[in-house]
């Protein structure tokens, strides 16, 4: 059966009996994509939902943007596409109903119910503050809190921005704080700030012109309303208002910094306070301090503490005065150092160890030494104020009582003073130079200066009643081992020139150097020599016969020579030395070169000699002295004058190297003559030296 005769798209058809005996061909079902119209004719194949009839009467998929409800005898007899409402569109081909019309960007979809109860869809343009990205069935979405859009029909959340006067913060809009603003819709995370020191009257400002009020601590520049200046130090401004100056702090108070925001910031700086009933702050008085910016009073340092000046700003300025020390740390208290204690010589900071120091042992402060109270202006500031008591002195280590021979007035730090050379004290602990006496072994010299006692004397020293002393000679023949002997018991050895039992004087021809015990005898001079009594050294032993420097000493009267029987020179000399009165001998050889000859002696005149003749021994250390009635030797060309005595005459001879003999005439007009020996062929002359005729023996 050809169903296309019914409809080109009829898939199954049948004959249907009509009235009477007639029948007609009707369609039972249509091809896929088509549906049989329910109009009672059964002859029309409409497009199925999602399809629309094209010009060739074929059903095609509904185009994107529209929907196709399918053919319908009453609603869509022409099988046409239906338009989605404004702002809505389908998003795929073959949409079947209005329900498949989704929102276009910037629109929302809403359902509208007609009075008959029929519900239809509408597209609504998203208003300012809402958006829709499209392609959905949702209404327009509201922007986050505090956000808006710049215009209607916004298509994304990114179009949601902060309105003028706000900023965007974590997806929400927040009003600009006072002192900030925005002028338009924005996505800024911060608001623009007013110039420094300027603010706005309210939050949410939308114009820089809203920046018109000075912040606290600032004032508007009278010459430029867009500039705020910080309040100078010692002024404040406590309002947010249009002000062109700051207010000075009352009571002379200061501000720690510029830009003070209120009178509570007007304070007394460190080192100042406002006293009760005062109109202005003043520096902290001496002995007080204040460390902070506040309105509190100054703090007292503590009893006995000082500050160097007013206005101290720290407790470090609290000092212990020189000569004072801490007595307590709680409360802090200082007191003057006294009764054998001392402080520092400068003011010092408070510390637990800043106490008075005890004087070193055996030293005392003046208040103790003088048994009185310390005077108010008397300060003990170092151990130099720790003094020794009278009769004591200092050493490199510790004080000590002044030893014998020293003294100290005391009340000082001086070492004990030495009494001086030759002086001492009778005991330790002396206090005055007037207590120095001549020390044992010394004497007071003629010049008023102490001298040590020489060997052979001793001194027991002075006493405080009789401070001077003299040296006492040892008993005759006795001496001491050293100078400065202090007692007679030290006279225990023989003196020079003494020896043997009882320390007797050494006889002629012997000597003793001294210092030997009494059992040591004097020493005999060498054979052919002799000495004076009491000789003390071997150099005082002289040859018993001494040659003339040349040949002979001539006599004024040659007849004074006495010839003797002695055929040789040695025999002639022996004859002279055997005679106690022989002054000298002269031996004249018989012939030149012969040992035999004539011997003559000159003898001393013992009864009233007019001339004293002294023969020089050696360089004049000693002379052999004899009495005669005439001169001896040849007078020198130059003679002395004005010689007072024999000793002086001797000294003149000693000084004259060419002199071999002096002749002293002590008559009415004393005269000193210097003479020498002369040359004489075949003659020799020697003078005798006897101990009892030595000048030193004759003039001890």
Polypeptide structure, described:
The chain is mostly beta strands and 700 residues long. It has seven domains: 3-100, no CATH class; 106-160, no CATH class; 161-208; 212-266; 324-385, no CATH class; 493-543, no CATH class; 545-698, no CATH class. It contains four helices and 62 strands. A five-stranded antiparallel sheet has the order 53-62-55-56-54, covered by helices on one side. Strands 58-57-60-61-59 form a five-stranded antiparallel sheet. Strands 1-2 form a two-stranded antiparallel ribbon. A hairpin with a 5-residue loop joins strand 11 and strand 12. The relative contact order is 0.04. The mean pLDDT is 94. InterPro entries: Growth_fac_rcpt_cys_sf, Pan_app, SCUB_EGF-like_domain, Tyr-kin_ephrin_A/B_rcpt-like.
Helix-strand blueprint:
Elements: E1 10-17, E2 23-30, E3 34-36, E4 45-47, E5 51-53, E6 59-61, E7 66-67, E8 82-83, E9 88-89, E10 102-103, E11 107-113, E12 119-125, E13 130-131, E14 141-142, E15 166-169, E16 172-175, E17 180-181, E18 192-193, E19 198-199, E20 213-214, E21 218-221, E22 224-230, E23 235-236, E24 247-248, E25 272-273, E26 282-283, E27 288-289, E28 299-300, E29 319-320, E30 324-329, E31 332-336, E32 341-342, E33 348-349, E34 357-358, H1 366-369, E35 392-393, E36 400-401, E37 406-407, E38 417-418, E39 423-424, E40 437-438, E41 442-444, E42 450-452, E43 457-458, E44 472-473, E45 478-479, E46 493-494, E47 498-499, E48 504-505, E49 510-511, E50 523-524, E51 529-530, E52 542-543, E53 545-547, E54 562-564, H2 569-577, E55 582-589, E56 597-603, E57 611-617, E58 622-628, E59 634-635, H3 646-655, E60 661-665, E61 671-676, E62 683-688, H4 695-698
Antiparallel strand pairs: 1-2, 3-4, 5-6, 7-8, 9-10, 11-12, 13-14, 15-16, 17-18, 19-20, 21-22, 23-24, 25-26, 27-28, 29-33, 30-31, 32-34, 35-36, 37-38, 39-40, 41-42, 43-44, 45-46, 47-48, 49-50, 51-52, 53-62, 54-56, 55-56, 55-62, 57-58, 57-60, 59-61, 60-61
